[in-house]
Specification:
Helix 1 runs antiparallel to helix 3. The protein has one domain. The chain contains three helices and no strands. It is mostly helical and 62 residues long. The relative contact order is 0.24. It is elongated.
Length: 62
Amino acid sequence: MIPNIGPRGQRQRLRLGIIAVAAAGVLTVLLFLFDAPRLWRFACFLPLWIGALGFLQAFDKT
């Protein structure tokens, strides 16, 4: 497969993935510490999804 991004783009996507997963982790911990309602805990899904996309794009070079 021919990559459509260079090493710089891969690093950017990997950095985005790491930051998004870390943000989701912090958000999850805070929501549980403050005993937030379950509906608010779904807010963790978006940064996790963005992080997963960042990792997948970085490793698949897309």
